[in-house]
Design a protein that fits this description.
With 185 residues, the chain is an all-alpha fold. It has two domains: 1-79; 80-185, no CATH class. It is 72% helix and 0% strand. The protein is built from nine helices and no strands. The chain has helices spanning 2-21, 24-35, 53-78, 83-92, 98-106, 112-135, 137-143, 150-168, 174-179. It is flat. 19% of the residues are buried.
């Protein structure tokens, strides 16, 4: 569990927050978050969080605490759910990146719109089925009579939506695809 918290906090800061930090709208949001002390202020006024390693570490630690609190609330809501089921749910979420990685590497038609739509669908299906299992177990059992794991069901929807949206939207630019082609020797 702690490894997932550390990885989640680090990924949210380094892979989500830092790339959007330089864009105009998120910069205003970052200033507001720093003013509310939700994120650390940079060491100097002109320094971004990207250049402030100590600030990144503080932000990651803050996110770890926030993610732990979210997990604690989810555990309280889940009530009598077994630890095994909670761990299966915890791994159902990262497995939703599998179609993006596999299709992104091996299918030239896969694109950003398909990846985003598939990921959102897979996560929504997992969340919906989890909440449904707590709120209306009979309905959840009727929807999932084979008692498949939530991650598998989400993965099927994710894959179907990613393929469909990728086929219905514009293909990736040829120059973008060329950047990832291996040189033949």
């Amino acid at each position: 569990g702690d490894a997932l918290l550390h990885a989640g906090g680090s990924m949210l800061i380094r892979d989500v927050l830092l790339p959007v930090e330089s864009r105009p709208l998120p910069r205003a949001l970052l200033r507001g978050a720093r003013a509310a002390r939700l994120l650390p202020a940079p060491a100097s006024a002109d320094q971004s969080l990207r250049a402030d390693e100590a600030g990144q570490t503080r932000a990651i630690r803050l996110l770890i605490v926030a993610l732990a609190l979210v997990a604690w609330v989810m555990l309280a809501v889940a009530g009598g759910t077994s630890v095994v089921d909670l761990l299966l749910l915890a791994y159902a979420i990262p497995i939703q990146f599998l179609p993006i990685v596999i299709l992104g590497l091996y299918w030239r038609r896969a694109n950003k719109a398909g990846a985003e739509a598939g990921l959102a669908t897979g996560l929504a299906v997992i969340s919906l089925l989890f909440v449904l299992g707590l709120a209306a177990p009979e309905l959840a059992a009727a929807i999932n009579p084979l008692k498949l794991e939530l991650g598998v069901i989400g993965l099927v929807f994710n894959l179907a939506v990613m393929i469909t949206v990728s086929l219905l939207s514009a293909p990736p630019d040829a120059q973008l695809l060329a950047r990832f082609e291996l040189e033949e020797s």
